[in-house]
Amino acid sequence: VNHVVNAKLLFDIVQKCPYGWTNFGVRCYKFFSQSVNWITAEVKNCLGLDANLASVHNKLENDFLLSLLPSSSTLCWLGVHDGEQEGQWMWSDGTPYDYTYWCSYEPNNRNVENCGEVNFSANRCWNDIACSTPMGYICAINL
């Protein structure tokens, strides 16, 4: 009986993702290839869809986000930033900053870098970069 209940719950969750979005856990995600700066991605584009730039809370979630990218060299905005206070990284969706996958020697704030990108270097890790840099982004909607 438990399997039937769990299957029904899973089916209900999957059904709630908007067309073109992909379910993972309790959220739906979509990669957008349009190159925009971090503020435009978060405030104009994701929030305009009742979403936020994606936050990451474990390795499985990080790997899933990488799987949404069209190639292993596609750079992409995450919702991580330290724009309010230097060195105090946080997620734009307000969820806990409880997992990181920064590249070695990152974040380094070189040339004032307050926003985070994913899929940097051969390690496909996170890097801090100037928020004005144009790149694609992943939005996430809570179910």
UniProtKB/TrEMBL annotation:
Residues annotated as signal peptide: none
Q: What InterPro entries does this protein map onto?
A: C-type_lectin-like (IPR001304), C-type_lectin-like/link_sf (IPR016186), C-type_lectin/snaclec_domain (IPR050111), C-type_lectin_CS (IPR018378), CTDL_fold (IPR016187)
Q: Which UniProt keywords apply?
A: Disulfide bond
**UniProt xrefs under Pfam families:** Lectin_C (PF00059)
Is Calcium among this UniProt entry's keywords?
no
- PROSITE patterns, alphabetized: C_TYPE_LECTIN_1, C_TYPE_LECTIN_2
Domain C-type lectin intervals: 24-140
In its UniProt entry, what is this protein called? Galactose-specific lectin nattectin-like
| Gene designation per UniProt | LOC107673672
